Automatic annotation (TrEMBL):
This is mannose-1-phosphate guanylyltransferase. Keywords: GTP-binding, Nucleotide-binding, Nucleotidyltransferase, Transferase. CDD domains: cupin_PMI_typeII_C, GDP-M1P_Guanylyltransferase. GO terms for biological process: GDP-mannose biosynthetic process; polysaccharide biosynthetic process. It catalyses: alpha-D-mannose 1-phosphate + GTP + H(+) = GDP-alpha-D-mannose + diphosphate. The keyword Nucleotidyltransferase applies. It comes from the Bacteria. It comes from Acidithiobacillus caldus (strain ATCC 51756 / DSM 8584 / KU). The lineage of its organism: Bacteria, Pseudomonadati, Pseudomonadota, Acidithiobacillia, Acidithiobacillales. Residues 368-478 form the Mannose-6-phosphate isomerase type II C-terminal domain. Residues 15-294 form the Nucleotidyl transferase domain. Residues 312-360 form the MannoseP isomerase/GMP-like beta-helix domain.
Length: 490
Protein backbone atom coordinates (compact mmCIF):
# COMPACT_ATOMS: atom_id res chain seq x y z
CA UNK A 1 0.00 0.00 0.00
CA UNK A 2 2.18 2.87 -1.23
CA UNK A 3 0.67 6.33 -1.21
CA UNK A 4 2.25 8.77 -3.64
CA UNK A 5 2.80 12.38 -2.71
CA UNK A 6 4.12 11.63 0.79
CA UNK A 7 6.74 14.05 2.13
CA UNK A 8 8.00 11.44 4.58
CA UNK A 9 11.44 10.09 3.61
CA UNK A 10 12.45 6.89 5.35
CA UNK A 11 13.14 3.23 4.57
CA UNK A 12 10.08 1.30 3.52
CA UNK A 13 8.40 -0.45 6.40
CA UNK A 14 5.73 -3.09 6.84
CA UNK A 15 3.09 -1.66 9.19
CA UNK A 16 1.74 -4.21 11.67
CA UNK A 17 -1.36 -3.10 13.56
CA UNK A 18 -2.29 -4.95 16.74
CA UNK A 19 -6.05 -4.76 17.13
CA UNK A 20 -7.59 -5.98 20.38
CA UNK A 21 -7.44 -5.38 24.12
CA UNK A 22 -10.41 -4.70 26.34
CA UNK A 23 -9.76 -1.13 27.47
CA UNK A 24 -11.39 -1.91 30.81
CA UNK A 25 -10.71 1.58 32.20
CA UNK A 26 -13.08 2.95 29.54
CA UNK A 27 -16.03 0.83 30.69
CA UNK A 28 -18.99 1.05 30.17
CA UNK A 29 -18.23 2.31 26.65
CA UNK A 30 -15.47 -0.26 26.02
CA UNK A 31 -16.39 -3.92 26.57
CA UNK A 32 -14.92 -7.26 25.65
CA UNK A 33 -16.94 -7.71 22.45
CA UNK A 34 -16.41 -4.09 21.35
CA UNK A 35 -13.09 -3.01 22.90
CA UNK A 36 -11.30 0.33 22.86
CA UNK A 37 -10.06 0.32 19.21
CA UNK A 38 -13.67 0.07 17.99
CA UNK A 39 -15.58 2.40 20.30
CA UNK A 40 -16.92 5.59 18.69
CA UNK A 41 -15.03 8.76 19.60
CA UNK A 42 -16.79 12.14 19.86
CA UNK A 43 -15.97 12.87 16.19
CA UNK A 44 -17.67 9.64 15.04
CA UNK A 45 -14.49 7.76 14.09
CA UNK A 46 -12.77 5.04 16.09
CA UNK A 47 -9.13 4.61 17.06
CA UNK A 48 -8.46 1.75 14.64
CA UNK A 49 -9.73 3.87 11.75
CA UNK A 50 -7.51 6.78 12.80
CA UNK A 51 -4.50 4.43 13.04
CA UNK A 52 -5.14 3.17 9.52
CA UNK A 53 -5.33 6.70 8.13
CA UNK A 54 -2.09 7.64 9.90
CA UNK A 55 -0.33 4.67 8.28
CA UNK A 56 -1.34 5.97 4.85
CA UNK A 57 1.31 8.72 5.16
CA UNK A 58 4.14 6.19 5.54
CA UNK A 59 6.19 4.95 2.57
CA UNK A 60 5.92 1.20 2.56
CA UNK A 61 6.10 -1.67 0.17
CA UNK A 62 2.48 -2.39 -0.54
CA UNK A 63 1.38 -4.57 2.40
CA UNK A 64 -0.20 -3.86 5.75
CA UNK A 65 -0.79 -6.57 8.32
CA UNK A 66 -3.59 -6.56 10.87
CA UNK A 67 -3.03 -8.94 13.80
CA UNK A 68 -6.22 -9.54 15.73
CA UNK A 69 -8.22 -12.14 17.58
CA UNK A 70 -10.71 -14.11 15.54
CA UNK A 71 -13.50 -12.50 17.58
CA UNK A 72 -12.56 -9.06 16.18
CA UNK A 73 -11.98 -10.09 12.58
CA UNK A 74 -15.20 -8.73 11.15
CA UNK A 75 -15.16 -5.59 13.29
CA UNK A 76 -11.68 -4.94 11.91
CA UNK A 77 -12.77 -5.54 8.31
CA UNK A 78 -15.73 -3.19 8.71
CA UNK A 79 -13.50 -0.45 10.13
CA UNK A 80 -10.95 -0.87 7.35
CA UNK A 81 -13.63 -0.67 4.68
CA UNK A 82 -14.97 2.53 6.25
CA UNK A 83 -11.58 4.17 6.88
CA UNK A 84 -9.72 3.26 3.69
CA UNK A 85 -12.50 2.75 1.16
CA UNK A 86 -12.67 0.23 -1.65
CA UNK A 87 -9.45 1.48 -3.27
CA UNK A 88 -7.20 0.31 -0.43
CA UNK A 89 -9.00 -2.17 1.79
CA UNK A 90 -7.92 -5.06 -0.42
CA UNK A 91 -4.25 -4.27 0.37
CA UNK A 92 -4.66 -5.24 4.04
CA UNK A 93 -3.90 -8.77 5.17
CA UNK A 94 -5.09 -10.38 8.41
CA UNK A 95 -3.32 -12.65 10.86
CA UNK A 96 -5.87 -14.19 13.21
CA UNK A 97 -5.13 -15.48 16.70
CA UNK A 98 -7.23 -18.37 18.04
CA UNK A 99 -6.74 -16.96 21.54
CA UNK A 100 -5.33 -13.68 22.85
CA UNK A 101 -1.83 -14.26 24.30
CA UNK A 102 -0.54 -10.67 24.74
CA UNK A 103 1.85 -8.74 22.50
CA UNK A 104 4.92 -11.03 22.49
CA UNK A 105 3.15 -13.88 20.70
CA UNK A 106 1.25 -11.53 18.39
CA UNK A 107 4.44 -9.76 17.30
CA UNK A 108 6.38 -13.01 16.92
CA UNK A 109 3.65 -14.34 14.64
CA UNK A 110 3.72 -11.11 12.62
CA UNK A 111 7.51 -11.46 12.21
CA UNK A 112 7.05 -15.03 10.93
CA UNK A 113 4.48 -13.78 8.44
CA UNK A 114 6.84 -10.98 7.29
CA UNK A 115 9.80 -13.36 7.01
CA UNK A 116 7.73 -15.69 4.84
CA UNK A 117 5.92 -13.10 2.74
CA UNK A 118 8.38 -10.19 2.48
CA UNK A 119 11.78 -11.45 3.60
CA UNK A 120 13.88 -11.67 6.78
CA UNK A 121 15.19 -8.11 6.40
CA UNK A 122 11.65 -6.65 6.33
CA UNK A 123 11.41 -3.70 8.72
CA UNK A 124 8.28 -4.06 10.86
CA UNK A 125 6.58 -1.06 12.41
CA UNK A 126 4.34 -2.44 15.17
CA UNK A 127 1.49 -0.13 16.14
CA UNK A 128 -1.22 -0.58 18.75
CA UNK A 129 -4.60 0.27 17.27
CA UNK A 130 -5.74 2.31 20.28
CA UNK A 131 -3.40 5.33 20.21
CA UNK A 132 -4.41 8.81 19.12
CA UNK A 133 -1.72 10.78 17.25
CA UNK A 134 -2.70 13.91 15.34
CA UNK A 135 0.77 15.07 14.20
CA UNK A 136 1.18 12.84 11.15
CA UNK A 137 4.37 14.60 9.96
CA UNK A 138 6.07 14.29 13.35
CA UNK A 139 5.05 10.65 13.57
CA UNK A 140 6.40 9.96 10.10
CA UNK A 141 9.75 11.59 10.94
CA UNK A 142 10.10 9.46 14.08
CA UNK A 143 9.29 6.30 12.11
CA UNK A 144 12.08 7.17 9.65
CA UNK A 145 14.61 7.40 12.48
CA UNK A 146 13.40 4.15 14.01
CA UNK A 147 13.52 2.30 10.68
CA UNK A 148 17.12 3.34 10.09
CA UNK A 149 18.11 2.16 13.58
CA UNK A 150 16.26 -1.12 12.95
CA UNK A 151 18.34 -1.66 9.81
CA UNK A 152 21.46 -1.27 11.99
CA UNK A 153 20.34 -4.22 14.12
CA UNK A 154 18.53 -2.47 16.97
CA UNK A 155 15.18 -3.41 18.44
CA UNK A 156 13.60 0.03 18.61
CA UNK A 157 10.87 1.39 20.81
CA UNK A 158 9.30 4.85 20.92
CA UNK A 159 9.35 7.09 23.99
CA UNK A 160 7.07 10.06 24.53
CA UNK A 161 8.50 13.15 26.21
CA UNK A 162 6.43 13.36 29.42
CA UNK A 163 4.27 16.41 30.05
CA UNK A 164 3.18 15.50 33.58
CA UNK A 165 4.10 13.12 36.42
CA UNK A 166 1.98 10.26 35.04
CA UNK A 167 1.61 7.15 37.21
CA UNK A 168 -0.33 5.11 34.64
CA UNK A 169 2.55 4.58 32.17
CA UNK A 170 5.84 2.71 32.21
CA UNK A 171 8.99 4.76 31.63
CA UNK A 172 12.22 4.40 29.63
CA UNK A 173 15.58 5.79 30.81
CA UNK A 174 17.73 7.08 27.95
CA UNK A 175 21.38 6.07 27.72
CA UNK A 176 24.07 6.94 25.18
CA UNK A 177 23.10 9.00 22.14
CA UNK A 178 22.65 7.39 18.73
CA UNK A 179 21.91 8.97 15.38
CA UNK A 180 18.15 9.49 15.63
CA UNK A 181 17.73 8.16 19.16
CA UNK A 182 19.35 6.74 22.27
CA UNK A 183 20.43 3.42 23.66
CA UNK A 184 17.88 2.25 26.23
CA UNK A 185 19.49 2.31 29.66
CA UNK A 186 16.59 0.52 31.35
CA UNK A 187 12.83 0.10 31.40
CA UNK A 188 10.95 1.24 34.50
CA UNK A 189 7.62 0.07 35.91
CA UNK A 190 4.65 2.37 36.47
CA UNK A 191 5.82 4.64 39.31
CA UNK A 192 4.12 6.18 42.32
CA UNK A 193 3.45 9.91 42.30
CA UNK A 194 6.70 10.91 44.00
CA UNK A 195 8.82 8.81 41.65
CA UNK A 196 6.94 10.10 38.59
CA UNK A 197 7.69 13.67 39.66
CA UNK A 198 11.38 12.77 39.96
CA UNK A 199 11.32 11.25 36.46
CA UNK A 200 9.73 14.39 35.06
CA UNK A 201 12.36 16.60 36.70
CA UNK A 202 15.24 14.35 35.64
CA UNK A 203 14.82 14.99 31.92
CA UNK A 204 16.20 11.63 30.71
CA UNK A 205 12.98 9.65 31.16
CA UNK A 206 10.31 8.99 28.53
CA UNK A 207 6.88 7.39 28.62
CA UNK A 208 6.91 3.95 27.04
CA UNK A 209 4.61 4.39 24.02
CA UNK A 210 4.31 0.70 23.13
CA UNK A 211 5.30 1.29 19.47
CA UNK A 212 8.14 -0.84 18.08
CA UNK A 213 10.36 -1.15 15.00
CA UNK A 214 12.77 -3.96 14.05
CA UNK A 215 13.57 -6.37 11.26
CA UNK A 216 11.74 -9.67 11.21
CA UNK A 217 15.04 -11.56 11.45
CA UNK A 218 16.34 -9.65 14.48
CA UNK A 219 13.06 -9.88 16.38
CA UNK A 220 12.83 -13.63 15.84
CA UNK A 221 16.45 -14.14 16.89
CA UNK A 222 15.84 -12.15 20.07
CA UNK A 223 12.61 -14.05 20.73
CA UNK A 224 14.39 -17.37 20.35
CA UNK A 225 17.07 -16.26 22.82
CA UNK A 226 14.96 -14.55 25.47
CA UNK A 227 11.49 -16.09 25.14
CA UNK A 228 11.92 -19.58 23.65
CA UNK A 229 8.48 -20.77 24.80
CA UNK A 230 6.81 -17.93 22.88
CA UNK A 231 9.03 -18.57 19.87
CA UNK A 232 8.32 -22.30 19.78
CA UNK A 233 4.55 -21.87 20.19
CA UNK A 234 4.30 -19.30 17.41
CA UNK A 235 6.52 -21.38 15.10
CA UNK A 236 4.21 -24.34 15.64
CA UNK A 237 1.11 -22.17 15.16
CA UNK A 238 2.52 -20.79 11.91
CA UNK A 239 3.27 -24.31 10.66
CA UNK A 240 -0.28 -25.41 11.54
CA UNK A 241 -1.87 -22.30 10.05
CA UNK A 242 -3.97 -21.95 6.94
CA UNK A 243 -4.26 -19.13 4.42
CA UNK A 244 -7.50 -18.11 2.74
CA UNK A 245 -7.07 -15.18 0.39
CA UNK A 246 -5.97 -12.18 2.46
CA UNK A 247 -6.47 -13.98 5.77
CA UNK A 248 -3.99 -16.15 7.68
CA UNK A 249 -5.39 -18.37 10.44
CA UNK A 250 -2.83 -19.34 13.08
CA UNK A 251 -3.00 -22.90 14.39
CA UNK A 252 -4.11 -24.01 17.83
CA UNK A 253 -0.51 -24.20 19.15
CA UNK A 254 -0.66 -20.42 19.46
CA UNK A 255 -2.82 -20.87 22.55
CA UNK A 256 0.13 -22.59 24.28
CA UNK A 257 2.27 -19.47 24.16
CA UNK A 258 2.94 -17.73 27.49
CA UNK A 259 0.72 -14.70 28.08
CA UNK A 260 3.48 -12.07 28.17
CA UNK A 261 4.15 -8.65 26.69
CA UNK A 262 6.95 -7.94 24.21
CA UNK A 263 8.51 -5.62 26.82
CA UNK A 264 8.93 -8.37 29.41
CA UNK A 265 9.66 -11.13 26.91
CA UNK A 266 12.38 -9.41 24.86
CA UNK A 267 12.89 -5.66 25.12
CA UNK A 268 13.98 -5.56 28.78
CA UNK A 269 16.49 -8.41 28.30
CA UNK A 270 18.03 -7.73 24.89
CA UNK A 271 21.44 -6.03 24.69
CA UNK A 272 20.76 -3.94 21.59
CA UNK A 273 17.65 -1.85 22.23
CA UNK A 274 17.19 1.77 21.18
CA UNK A 275 14.53 4.39 21.82
CA UNK A 276 13.42 7.20 19.54
CA UNK A 277 12.03 10.19 21.46
CA UNK A 278 8.66 11.11 20.01
CA UNK A 279 8.01 14.82 19.72
CA UNK A 280 4.57 14.20 18.24
CA UNK A 281 1.42 14.34 20.34
CA UNK A 282 0.40 10.99 21.82
CA UNK A 283 -2.64 9.85 23.75
CA UNK A 284 -3.35 6.20 24.48
CA UNK A 285 -6.85 7.01 25.81
CA UNK A 286 -6.12 4.67 28.67
CA UNK A 287 -8.82 6.07 30.96
CA UNK A 288 -11.69 8.55 31.03
CA UNK A 289 -9.50 11.50 32.01
CA UNK A 290 -7.61 11.06 28.73
CA UNK A 291 -10.89 10.75 26.82
CA UNK A 292 -12.04 13.99 28.43
CA UNK A 293 -9.04 15.79 26.96
CA UNK A 294 -10.61 15.30 23.52
CA UNK A 295 -13.59 17.45 24.56
CA UNK A 296 -13.69 21.26 24.78
CA UNK A 297 -13.89 22.77 28.26
CA UNK A 298 -16.37 25.43 29.35
CA UNK A 299 -15.51 28.35 31.64
CA UNK A 300 -15.84 26.12 34.73
CA UNK A 301 -13.59 23.38 33.37
CA UNK A 302 -16.44 20.99 32.54
CA UNK A 303 -15.97 18.73 29.52
CA UNK A 304 -18.75 16.72 27.96
CA UNK A 305 -20.24 14.93 24.97
CA UNK A 306 -23.99 14.87 24.38
CA UNK A 307 -26.89 17.07 25.45
CA UNK A 308 -25.71 18.44 28.80
CA UNK A 309 -26.97 20.94 31.34
CA UNK A 310 -24.47 22.28 33.87
CA UNK A 311 -25.70 24.21 36.92
CA UNK A 312 -23.21 25.33 39.55
CA UNK A 313 -20.88 22.47 38.60
CA UNK A 314 -17.13 22.50 38.00
CA UNK A 315 -14.34 20.32 36.61
CA UNK A 316 -16.59 17.41 35.57
CA UNK A 317 -16.26 15.01 32.63
CA UNK A 318 -19.52 13.67 31.19
CA UNK A 319 -20.05 11.28 28.28
CA UNK A 320 -23.77 10.93 27.57
CA UNK A 321 -24.62 10.84 23.85
CA UNK A 322 -28.04 9.15 24.17
CA UNK A 323 -30.03 11.48 26.47
CA UNK A 324 -30.00 14.76 28.36
CA UNK A 325 -27.78 14.70 31.44
CA UNK A 326 -27.97 17.50 34.03
CA UNK A 327 -25.40 18.13 36.77
CA UNK A 328 -26.26 20.33 39.75
CA UNK A 329 -23.91 21.55 42.47
CA UNK A 330 -21.15 18.98 41.94
CA UNK A 331 -17.48 19.05 41.03
CA UNK A 332 -14.70 16.70 39.95
CA UNK A 333 -17.14 14.00 38.83
CA UNK A 334 -16.87 11.49 36.01
CA UNK A 335 -20.24 10.46 34.52
CA UNK A 336 -20.53 7.95 31.66
CA UNK A 337 -24.04 7.07 30.54
CA UNK A 338 -24.75 4.28 28.05
CA UNK A 339 -28.13 2.68 27.27
CA UNK A 340 -27.58 -0.21 29.70
CA UNK A 341 -25.01 0.97 32.26
CA UNK A 342 -24.19 4.18 34.16
CA UNK A 343 -20.81 4.98 35.73
CA UNK A 344 -20.41 7.73 38.32
CA UNK A 345 -16.99 8.22 39.88
CA UNK A 346 -14.67 10.78 41.33
CA UNK A 347 -12.62 12.14 38.47
CA UNK A 348 -9.32 11.19 40.12
CA UNK A 349 -10.42 7.53 40.35
CA UNK A 350 -10.61 6.93 36.59
CA UNK A 351 -7.69 4.45 36.72
CA UNK A 352 -9.74 2.29 39.11
CA UNK A 353 -12.67 1.73 36.72
CA UNK A 354 -11.07 -1.60 35.82
CA UNK A 355 -11.93 -2.77 39.34
CA UNK A 356 -15.62 -2.45 38.45
CA UNK A 357 -15.02 -4.58 35.37
CA UNK A 358 -13.17 -7.19 37.42
CA UNK A 359 -16.14 -7.46 39.78
CA UNK A 360 -18.56 -7.80 36.85
CA UNK A 361 -16.41 -10.51 35.30
CA UNK A 362 -16.11 -12.24 38.65
CA UNK A 363 -19.89 -12.57 38.81
CA UNK A 364 -20.17 -13.44 35.08
CA UNK A 365 -22.26 -10.32 34.49
CA UNK A 366 -22.96 -9.90 30.76
CA UNK A 367 -22.37 -6.12 30.84
CA UNK A 368 -18.65 -6.74 31.23
CA UNK A 369 -18.65 -8.19 27.72
CA UNK A 370 -21.56 -6.92 25.64
CA UNK A 371 -23.64 -3.83 24.91
CA UNK A 372 -27.37 -4.02 24.27
CA UNK A 373 -26.38 -3.56 20.61
CA UNK A 374 -24.16 -6.45 19.55
CA UNK A 375 -22.16 -6.46 16.31
CA UNK A 376 -22.09 -9.53 14.13
CA UNK A 377 -20.46 -10.15 10.73
CA UNK A 378 -23.84 -9.77 9.03
CA UNK A 379 -25.03 -6.66 10.95
CA UNK A 380 -26.27 -5.96 14.47
CA UNK A 381 -28.92 -6.89 16.98
CA UNK A 382 -30.25 -4.75 19.83
CA UNK A 383 -32.06 -6.16 22.83
CA UNK A 384 -35.15 -3.96 23.31
CA UNK A 385 -36.74 -5.77 26.22
CA UNK A 386 -36.51 -9.11 28.00
CA UNK A 387 -38.25 -10.86 30.84
CA UNK A 388 -39.15 -14.32 32.02
CA UNK A 389 -39.44 -16.59 28.96
CA UNK A 390 -39.34 -13.76 26.37
CA UNK A 391 -36.87 -11.44 24.64
CA UNK A 392 -37.47 -8.77 21.97
CA UNK A 393 -34.70 -7.76 19.56
CA UNK A 394 -34.23 -5.30 16.73
CA UNK A 395 -32.17 -7.03 14.02
CA UNK A 396 -30.35 -5.22 11.18
CA UNK A 397 -28.91 -7.29 8.33
CA UNK A 398 -26.56 -5.54 5.94
CA UNK A 399 -27.27 -5.73 2.17
CA UNK A 400 -26.30 -9.05 0.55
CA UNK A 401 -25.46 -10.63 3.91
CA UNK A 402 -27.03 -13.65 5.59
CA UNK A 403 -27.07 -15.38 8.95
CA UNK A 404 -26.04 -19.00 9.42
CA UNK A 405 -28.37 -21.89 8.78
CA UNK A 406 -29.15 -22.67 12.41
CA UNK A 407 -31.47 -24.20 14.97
CA UNK A 408 -32.43 -23.51 18.61
CA UNK A 409 -33.46 -26.23 21.03
CA UNK A 410 -35.25 -24.15 23.64
CA UNK A 411 -36.87 -21.17 21.92
CA UNK A 412 -39.20 -20.29 19.09
CA UNK A 413 -38.93 -17.03 17.13
CA UNK A 414 -41.37 -14.68 15.44
CA UNK A 415 -39.94 -12.25 12.84
CA UNK A 416 -41.73 -9.07 11.71
CA UNK A 417 -40.09 -7.15 8.84
CA UNK A 418 -39.98 -3.39 9.47
CA UNK A 419 -38.09 -2.33 6.34
CA UNK A 420 -36.41 -4.08 3.45
CA UNK A 421 -37.04 -7.59 2.16
CA UNK A 422 -36.11 -10.81 3.96
CA UNK A 423 -35.30 -14.11 2.30
CA UNK A 424 -36.29 -16.72 4.86
CA UNK A 425 -35.61 -20.46 5.00
CA UNK A 426 -37.69 -22.44 7.51
CA UNK A 427 -37.19 -26.20 7.31
CA UNK A 428 -37.42 -27.01 3.61
CA UNK A 429 -39.50 -23.94 2.74
CA UNK A 430 -38.01 -20.75 1.29
CA UNK A 431 -39.86 -17.49 0.71
CA UNK A 432 -39.58 -13.71 0.63
CA UNK A 433 -41.03 -11.78 3.56
CA UNK A 434 -41.86 -8.16 2.72
CA UNK A 435 -42.27 -5.08 4.89
CA UNK A 436 -45.10 -5.48 7.45
CA UNK A 437 -45.17 -9.24 6.93
CA UNK A 438 -44.06 -11.87 9.44
CA UNK A 439 -43.00 -15.48 9.83
CA UNK A 440 -42.73 -18.00 12.67
CA UNK A 441 -39.92 -20.45 13.47
CA UNK A 442 -40.68 -23.27 15.90
CA UNK A 443 -38.06 -24.57 18.30
CA UNK A 444 -36.00 -27.36 16.77
CA UNK A 445 -36.52 -26.12 13.19
CA UNK A 446 -33.55 -25.31 10.94
CA UNK A 447 -33.84 -21.75 9.59
CA UNK A 448 -31.91 -18.97 7.89
CA UNK A 449 -32.34 -15.22 7.39
CA UNK A 450 -30.86 -13.35 4.41
CA UNK A 451 -31.02 -9.82 3.03
CA UNK A 452 -31.07 -10.17 -0.78
CA UNK A 453 -31.61 -6.44 -1.31
CA UNK A 454 -29.44 -3.33 -1.59
CA UNK A 455 -30.80 -1.55 1.51
CA UNK A 456 -30.51 -2.71 5.14
CA UNK A 457 -33.08 -5.21 6.32
CA UNK A 458 -34.63 -4.31 9.69
CA UNK A 459 -36.90 -6.65 11.58
CA UNK A 460 -38.25 -7.23 15.08
CA UNK A 461 -37.62 -10.65 16.56
CA UNK A 462 -39.72 -11.96 19.44
CA UNK A 463 -38.19 -14.96 21.19
CA UNK A 464 -40.12 -17.16 23.60
CA UNK A 465 -39.11 -20.29 25.45
CA UNK A 466 -37.65 -21.77 28.60
CA UNK A 467 -34.07 -20.68 27.83
CA UNK A 468 -33.07 -17.63 25.73
CA UNK A 469 -29.27 -17.59 26.02
CA UNK A 470 -27.17 -16.80 22.96
CA UNK A 471 -25.40 -20.14 23.31
CA UNK A 472 -28.59 -22.05 22.41
CA UNK A 473 -27.59 -22.26 18.77
CA UNK A 474 -26.50 -25.05 16.43
CA UNK A 475 -25.00 -23.83 13.15
CA UNK A 476 -25.18 -26.12 10.12
CA UNK A 477 -23.82 -23.76 7.44
CA UNK A 478 -22.15 -20.37 7.81
CA UNK A 479 -20.40 -18.14 5.27
CA UNK A 480 -18.27 -16.64 8.08
CA UNK A 481 -16.63 -19.91 9.12
CA UNK A 482 -18.40 -20.28 12.48
CA UNK A 483 -19.51 -23.91 12.06
CA UNK A 484 -17.84 -26.49 14.27
CA UNK A 485 -16.57 -29.60 12.51
CA UNK A 486 -18.92 -31.74 14.56
CA UNK A 487 -22.06 -29.79 13.69
CA UNK A 488 -24.86 -32.09 12.52
CA UNK A 489 -26.51 -31.94 9.15
CA UNK A 490 -30.12 -30.70 9.26
Amino acid sequence: MHFSGSDCHSPQVVPVILSGGTGSRLWPLSRTQQPKPFIPLPDGENLLGKTLKRVQALPHGGRLLMVTNRDYYFLSRDTIASALGADHEDRVEYLLEPKARNTAAAIAAAALWAQDQVGPEAVLLVLPSDHLIEDAAGFCAAVGKAARLAQQGYLVTFGVVPSRPETGYGYIAQGAALEGGFVVDRFLEKPNRETAEAYLAGGQYLWNAGIFCFTAKNLLQAMSEHAPAVHEATLAAWAQGQANGDTWWLGKAFSQSPDISIDYAVMESHDRVAVVPATFDWNDLGAWEAMGELLPADSEGNRGHGELLWEDSRQCVVYSPERLTALLGVEDLLVVDTPDALLIARRDRDQDVKRIVERLKGSSHPLADTHITVHRPWGTYTVLEEGEHFKIKRILVKPREKLSLQMHYHRSEHWIVVSGTAKVVVGKDERLVMTNESTFIAAGTAHRLENPGVIPLVLIEVQSGAYLGEDDIVRFEDIYGRVEASAPTP
